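Operator note (shift B, R.M.): manual run for DUF1985 domain-containing protein requested after the automated queue skipped it. Running by hand, logging everything below so the morning shift can see what happened. Input copied straight from the record, untouched. If output looks odd, do not overwrite the archive copy; leave it for review.
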Amino acid sequence: MWFNIGGSLVSFTTQDFCLITGLRCSGDDKRSKFDAQFCRIKNDLFGHITNISPSDMYDLLCKCSQLSDRDVISLASLFVLTSLMFTTSYKRSVEESLMVLVESKEMNTYAWGNELFGFTISSLRSDLKNKSLIIEGDGKPYIAYRLSGFLIAFQIWIYETITILEGKICSKVRYYCPRILNWTSRVHGNVSAKLNIAKTKLGLKLTQTNSGRFEFWFRVRLKN
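Run finished. Output pasted below as returned.
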């Protein structure tokens, strides 16, 4: 996927995603084959719930002292997948195929990178076309985009692509692979102010916030 940043065309590719995440980006990524298999997690741990959400898994994990080691590992794996990698709505149901896969012998050989990259790119291509106008407490309008997927990987790609960000809103603290381990950021609020870029030059004020525990919003404040 190509982006125009400051007049230069840059691409976010499968190779970038692989280097950033360290996930397998080749091989079998046909998760549909797990749809028809018996789902132990759903039947044994959530028998009374029809549509299981990340919120339900979180609530059960909080009672981990009552669970077996196997159950804790499976639930924790699902929680990471649904809250960090396959980010969507906090209320969205977790797919049964994911519950089966995390307990399968293919868990560590599955091409997670292939599926996650496709999922993330699909969101970027479709959701960046849909924007919402939000008026916050300060009375100033924002354009907001709600995205899905492994957005932290996309965020790291932004850090590595827009070099002016380093030292201002993010810091490269090491040189490891996967590259997701190399970056840290504690900056919140108006990115333009942190970069000290004139409004007439930038034209936009950028902020990045979280809305809920499992939804990421990227916001653009409208130019005055």
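Quick read of the result: Residues 72 and 117 are 27 Å apart (CA to CA). The first strand starts at residue 2 and ends at 5.
Leaving this for review. - R.M.
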